[in-house]
Amino acid sequence: MRRYEVDVPIHHAADQERQGHHVFTGRAAGEREALAAAHHAYDRAVQNLSAGRPAPDDSSDGWGVCAVRPDWVLDWHKATTTEWVNPRSLM
User: Which comes out higher in pLDDT, residue 62 or 60?
Assistant: First the structure.
């Protein structure tokens, strides 16, 4: 499996002028699987944090989430997925 990067545009819920990107990386068989894995990892993290539990540390495939910003909205329909390029041998 290859490593992919999923870039999801985000904006602040109360101030849409505040924008950015949330970046996910992990292993997947293709771009669709990568997008689904990133979305699933984020949804699980939000569910756990909403229930007062820490974000799950199930990042064996790389799709872990270490931070959730509750006032920010992820625009999943605008997400882009590409094969990850490792410019500095980070992993």
Answer: 62
User: Is pLDDT above 80 for 59?
Assistant: no
Could you give the dihedral angle defined by the CA atoms of residues 1, 24, 39 and 83, in that order, rounded to the nearest 10 degrees? Answer: -40
The amino acid at residue 56 is P
CB 38 within 8 A of CB 25: no
- Enter the tokens of residue 54: 């820490």
Q: Which two tokens stand for residue 14?
A: 């109360």
Q: Over 80: is that where the pLDDT of 58 sits?
A: no
DSSP the chain: -EEEEEEEEEEESS-TT-EEEEEEEEEESSHHHHHHHHHHHHHHHHHHHHTT-PPP---TTS-------TTEEE-GGG-EEEEPP-TT---
